[in-house]
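Why do we care about 3D structure at all? Because function follows from shape, and shape follows, mostly, from sequence. That is the central idea of this module. The next example makes it concrete: a single protein chain, its amino acid sequence, and then its structure expressed as tokens.
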Amino acid sequence: MTQRLTPGTALLLTIPPLLWAGNAVVGRMAQGLIPPVTLNFLRWALAFAILLPLAGWVLRRSSGLWSHWRRFALLGLLGVGCYNALQYLALKTSTPLNVTLVASSIPLWMLATGALFFGARISRQQLLGAALSMAGVGVVLSRGEWAHLLELRLVTGDLYVLLATACWALYSWLLTRRAEPDAIRSDWAAFLMAQVVFGLGWSGAFAASEWALTDARIVWGWPTLATLLFVAIGPAVLAYRCWGLGVQRAGPAIAGFFSNLTPLFAALMSAAFLGEMPRTYHALAFALIVGGIVVSSRR
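And the structure:
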């Protein structure tokens, strides 16, 4: 795509990172109100209800969903069942800024996943960009002191978010394989609904395990209800819609740069709502990660 980046398109591509950063901050604020895996399940249950009037036809026997159930079951596992559940788990021991910065290493995981499982070639520029991005992740994991890496002093949340980014990379590569009916693929609401249908099964099973194995409980009240409404309407549905429109207008290469606004928004929101002020190593990590993406995207 060679379409020009207009102010309207730029706004469309800015909304998702803002909502994704808000998702991380709200997920951190919800600790103690609702268990993380349960939060993911209820988020997508509400998203399902929102999507039902828009794409309820997908549930019909003739829609093509059920004949392609393996495809959507795998997408639902990675994108709905695992990715955000792991992020919410990460937020129990890590900060929103750390989580979003480490998640910005997705281009590295994308390169590795493509080379290992999809036969994609990696150029020297992409390797250099990946090295820079990985250095940025190392800065976050070491808390700005490289000696910490030698001591393997990682908090549990850092490991969860690394696993989440690996899931998202595989999910993204699978999306490049068009293996579903055009009627579903061409309709953003239908395509998301098809994944949510199976994703609810996965996330429900994970949430049931959380309740069986831990002392999980929900503190019902306006803060919990507001959290659920925000994560369902904003990051789950609205961000997906804006991102899809923005990518169609500007192309994936340009759109990819906007996703790296997420750590910046997360830093501002964390300072405003959680009192978690960004530190010098966060700025260095952000610069390395963005620099790596810029380098790897050059032709």
